[in-house]
Amino acid sequence: GIQVEQSPPDLILQEGANSTLRCNFSDSVNNLQWFHQNPWGQLINLFYIPSGTKQNGRLSATTVATERYSLLYISSSQTTDSGVYFCAVPQIKAAGNKLTFGGGTRVLVKP
Amino acid sequence: EAQVTQNPRYLITVTGKKLTVTCSQNMNHEYMSWYRQDPGLGLRQIYYSMNVEVTDKGDVPEGYKVSRKEKRNFPLILESPSPNQTSLYFCASSSLDRAHMNTEAFFGQGTRLTVV
C-alpha cells in the first residue's frame, strides 16, 4: 500500500515563529488531507487539498501531486497551534477506501 | 452544522461486558468507517461501510462488529471487550465521487475506551 512520511517528527517553536511541515507519499493520490489533533485528542480538518495551494487564516497548504508531496505552513504561531499534525491520503477502492496517515509532526509552541 | 457525533466520549469498562459506541453523521455521506489510534501504531481502520447494509473489514477487525441499518448511523460493537482493545476510537464519514473514491473525510470527536 501507499506509504506516507512526515517530517520533522517533532517541532518546538517560540510563539510568533513560522514553520513548514512536509508530507511525502509514495504513489499517485486523488486527494490529500491535513488534520490537527489537539491535546484533547480531537482530529480537526485543516485542508482538503488534492493539488494547488489553499489558505485559511495563518495556515496554508500546498500539494504538488506530480512530485508526491504536500507542505503545511504555519505563520505567526500561537500556543493554540500545539498538537500533532497529520497528513492522510486515501487508498484505492479495493483497499477499503481507507485513509493512510503519516506518522505526524508533534508541534509545541512555547509562549 | 455538519458533523460526526460519537458517544460516549470516555468509557471505562470491564473485560467481557458488551458495549456499543454510537456514531451518527448529518451530511448524508455514503461512506463511514471506524479507526483506532494507538501510540506507535498510528490510526488503523477497523471496519468500513460503503452504504446501507454494505460493510467490510478493515485492517484490524478482530473483536469488533458493526452494522449499517440507516445511512446516518454506524455503531461499533465490542461483544466481549478485552484490555488490548483499550484505545482511542474515531468514526469518520465522507461522500463518494463518481469513481466511488472518497472525498473529504470528517471525523468524530473520538471515544477514549479503557478496558480493565
Low-confidence stretches of chain B: none
Percent of residues in β-strands of chain A: over 45%
Which quaternary structure do these chains form? heterodimer
Quick check: average pLDDT of chain A?
93
**Total number of beta strands of chain A:** 11
Instruction: Give the terminus-to-terminus CA distance of chain B.
Output: 36 Å
Instruction: Give the count of helical stretches of chain A.
Output: 0
- What is the H-and-E element order of chain A? EEEEEEEEEEE
The shape of chain B, in one word, is: globular
Largest sheet features of chain A? 6 strands, mixed
Give the low-pLDDT segments of chain A. none
Q: How confident overall, as mean pLDDT of chain B?
A: 94
H and E string of chain B: EEEEEEEEEEE
Number of strands of chain B: 11
- Report how far the terminal alpha carbons of chain A are from each other: 40 Å
SS field, number of helical segments of chain B? 0
Structural class of chain A: mainly beta
Radius of gyration of chain B: 14 Å
Helix content of chain A: under 10%
Q: Tell me about the largest β-sheet of chain B.
A: 7 strands, mixed
Structural class of the secondary elements of chain B? mainly beta
What do you see in this structure?
The complex is a heterodimer of chains A (111) and B (116). Chain A has strands at 4-7, 10-14, 19-25, 33-37, 43-48, 52-56, 59-64, 69-74, 83-90, 99-101, 105-110. With 111 residues, chain A is mostly beta strands. In chain A, the strands form two sheets. In chain A, strands 2, 4, 5, 9, 10 and 11 form a six-stranded mixed β-sheet that branches. A five-stranded antiparallel β-sheet of chain A has the order 1-3-8-7-6, with no helix packed on it. Chain A is globular. The N and C termini of chain A lie far apart (40 Å). Chain B has 116 residues and is mainly β. In chain B, the strands form two sheets. In chain B, strands 2, 4, 5, 6, 9, 10 and 11 form a seven-stranded mixed β-sheet that branches. A four-stranded antiparallel β-sheet of chain B has the order 1-3-8-7, with no helix packed on it. In chain B, a hairpin with a 2-residue loop joins strand 5 (42-51) and strand 6 (54-57). Chain B is globular and about 45 Å long. The mean pLDDT of chain B is 94. The A-B interface holds A 30-31, 33, 35, 41-43, 45, 48, 86, 88, 90, 92-93, 96-99, 101, 103-104 and B 31, 33, 35, 42-43, 45, 48, 50, 56-59, 88, 90, 92, 96, 99-107, 109-110, 112.
